[in-house]
Amino acid sequence: MRLSVAAAISHGRVHRPLGLGPRSRLDLxxxxxxxxxxHERIEAPWARADEMRGYAEKLIEYAKLGDTNExxxxxxxxxxxxxxxxxxxxKVLAPRFQPHPGSYTRxxxxxxxDGIDRAKMAVIELKGNPFPPLxxxxxxxxxxxxxxxxxxxxxxxxxxxxxxxxxxxxx
Length: 171
Known about the structure:
Elements: H1 22-39, E1 41-45, H2 46-63, H3 70-79, H4 85-97, E2 105-110, E3 121-126, H5 145-161
Antiparallel strand pairs: 1-3, 2-3
Helix pairs in contact: 1-2
């Protein structure tokens, strides 16, 4: 028996086609990374936030090397369009994430954007920011089919395990 897995064939595409071209895509990502460093929590369409997340985390990895590292300074100079944020990156964010090995951002889905496109939206934030935490909506899982079947099974097992009165005895 052969198992097959459905896979999306990318044909050499390694990233999402954001913007109007390569330069537009890069400018869009740089502006999003800059906004994330400045505000530490932003709303963006899911595809843009997801694409930008890797670049923001890599920038923080470089910032953890310190402001004396030439490559880290070049990366910060390239990715941050507002140069006053370089100081914040190296002096505020890098020490905050120094003990952590990775995963510096958190992404949560929020309701779709109203209007013409109804785009899937997300909030992306840096962990440890000063804002109140966003709560993840929990699904009511009692109503799923699997949980209903498990609940019925547990009730049946409890009925069988309960001491039964002999027949003919009034209950």
